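Let us work through a complete example step by step.
Step 1: write down the sequence.
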Amino acid sequence: MKTVLITGCSSGFGLDTARYFLERDWRVVATMRTPRDDLLPASPNLWVIPLDVADPQGIQAAVAGAGEVDVLVNNAGFGARRRSS
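Step 2: predict the structure and record it as tokens.
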């Protein structure tokens, strides 16, 4: 079984992508800043883990904990407001 790690699964494209891969019998590692078990259907192929993409140590922990990953979907991001001069 192939494994996909997807960032930003709490809403939008990340959530839809996690559903897409679950429906196709992939093992899905769905990451969220604040994990919620009620967003995705219960499945033995689903693992929801915490991840803040702005936290380097959290990234290392999530990657190490996910095991072997076949596909990475890096959907999450963070914005920074540019200060005007």
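Step 3: interpret the result. The beta strands are 3-6, 27-32, 46-50, 71-73.
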